[in-house]
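I'm stuck. Protein, please.
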Amino acid sequence: MGNQALYLKRNMKKKLLFPILFASLLTLSACNGGSNNGENSAPQSSDESGTVETARKILNASLKKQVIELDAKTKVLCDVEGVKYRTSDANIASIDAQGNIEGINGGMAYITVSKEGYFDKVLKVFVDDPLTVDYLVEGFEFGPAIEGVKLNLEGKVKATDLQNVQFNVKTNGTNRNILSVDLCDPEGTVINATESNYIRFTLEVTSSTYSASGGAQCFSYTNMNDWMSNIRAEVSIKSGTLVAGEDSFTNLTVNRIRSRIVTSTREWGEAKTHTAEGYTLSYKGFEPDRLREDGVLNPLVIWLHGQGEGGTDPDIAILGNDVTELGNEKIQSHFVKGQQKGAYVLAAQTPTMWMDNGKGQNHGGVGHSIYTKTLKSLIDKFIADNGDIDTKRIFVGGCSNGGYMTMEMAVNYGNFFRGFYPCCEAYSDSFVEDSDIAKLKDLPMWFIHAANDGTVNPNNFTLATYQRLISAGAKDVHLSYFVDVRGTQGNPRGNNYDGHWSWIYIFRDEVEFDQADPNNISAPSTKPVKDANGNTVNLFDWMESMK
């Protein structure tokens, strides 16, 4: 404890000085009638200049009423161009004097402001202790899980010194099995370096049938998925001495969470919103630089989430169904041809559900969506924002509620899209008119469903519509019909999932067979699918073959 006491004593001045200086700045601005331009400030010590400058920038921004919105609950005031931020929970955001998330002089300024107000609604101002942890989240077929913890230190740790220290890591109060301990960068990526301020602990992940287990949980479910409000992460030293710059620690426990880092969405763009036709959708896109720079037009693959993934945080829609796999190498490789380096991916999110009847209720797949025109407008905007998308190769699919919305887009905007891949779709066949079948039969479509789906009965949805399309003469309509849904991850040897979870086969790139006899549907599907040139293709090859 002696080392920690010295550490805290050396940093106590920072912790006490910043709120006092900040209050002085606020008082001074009031005396100047709200016209403080940043030239007047309280005296500052040489090691405190960065933090005070942060406070001054935040203060000036508040007086100018310049606002950066984080979410429906939080706004951060700042006049730093290109500011970056990270939320450590729904009500906290952080910036530094340069507008980055890096700490200054071992600290970081945090400020929380209510949605309604400016500095009259300040809830919290403090300088962050550089001894913090981040928890790292990755998507799996059973949902998201805490797959790592990152320890943030003021001093640099040498890679050679890590071998002499034994650590213990807990998440949500459970001891986790540490697979590896490595130096990493600020985003938690393992690096080959001699020293770093950051240590990453990669953890074993286990699961139950429906979610991560063993302390790895990070979602809670009440009608819809959301981030758990009380996630905990802790790193402690079991034995040895950790040397970090001038500090040495032999008895250390760090459990103050600075932020959540979603490791599996690094190549996805920032969360955005789009408003049209009176409704607002959230979204993220997989849009890496290599696509913009390949010099050719690239296809666009759209994913629409299920009912459990609605809300205003696209990471929930992406992680809830393991959508990041659409941007990973295995699936992207199907779209790497010649100069073409892959496909764009758009993950759209509704604040409620795609099957919303206008009252926040699920209409059961027997009505149109209130979000139909808004979604089409969002797709148009995403295409406009990425000028190298091939508008002749746009594919849309989704699961359950999102499968319903896939059929809704097919009915309303069929010829705009090149193909459709509805999964365990909930667009009731009783709602499909004969006139709809006449339009849909000429559209490329690949259905995915499992025979033991107890949530969306395939007989009343997928199978009935598929057979009507085949009877109407459809030539490029396919059905991959699985017996059940078998897992390969977690538990730790894989789960037998709920039969509704057939989207797992899409993200494992295992959708490849059609019905041998469309008039006598059976599971599993066994007939290979051929493209126009007679080549055997799976779902994503099928998309890529459509030029």
